[in-house]
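Homework help board

Subject: predicted structure for assignment chain

Our instructor gave us this sequence and asked us to write out the predicted structure in C-alpha cell form, then describe one feature. I got the C-alpha cells but I'm not sure how to describe them. Can anyone check?
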Amino acid sequence: MDELFEEIKTYLDITWDMTAAEEKKLRGSIKRGMAYLEGKIGRCNFYEDTQEKALLMDYCMYERAGQFPEFVNNYKPEIISLQMNRWRENAENQG
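My C-alpha cell output:
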C-alpha cells in the first residue's frame, strides 16, 4: 500500500511533506476509491499498471477536488466496460 500511496501522491502533484492529517485523508481516499471500484467492477489489481489503477488515481483526484459526482459521470462508460469484461471472464472460467 505504501508504494501505491506514493504513486498516487506523485500523480496528484503533492510534492511537500504531508502532515499526519493530510496523509490520513489521502489514505482514506485511496481506500474508499478501492472499495468503490471493486464494488462496481469486482476484483481489481491496483498494484500494477492497469485500467483499474488509472481509475483509482483519477478517483482520488476527483475526490480531493470535491467532485466525486463528476468522476461517476465522466468514468461511467469505462467502469461499465470493465464490468462487462469481468462478467465475460467469469463466464468463460465457469463454462
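Reply (TA_rk): Your C-alpha cells look well-formed. For the description, you could write something like this. Residues 2-94 form one domain. That's the kind of observation they're looking for.
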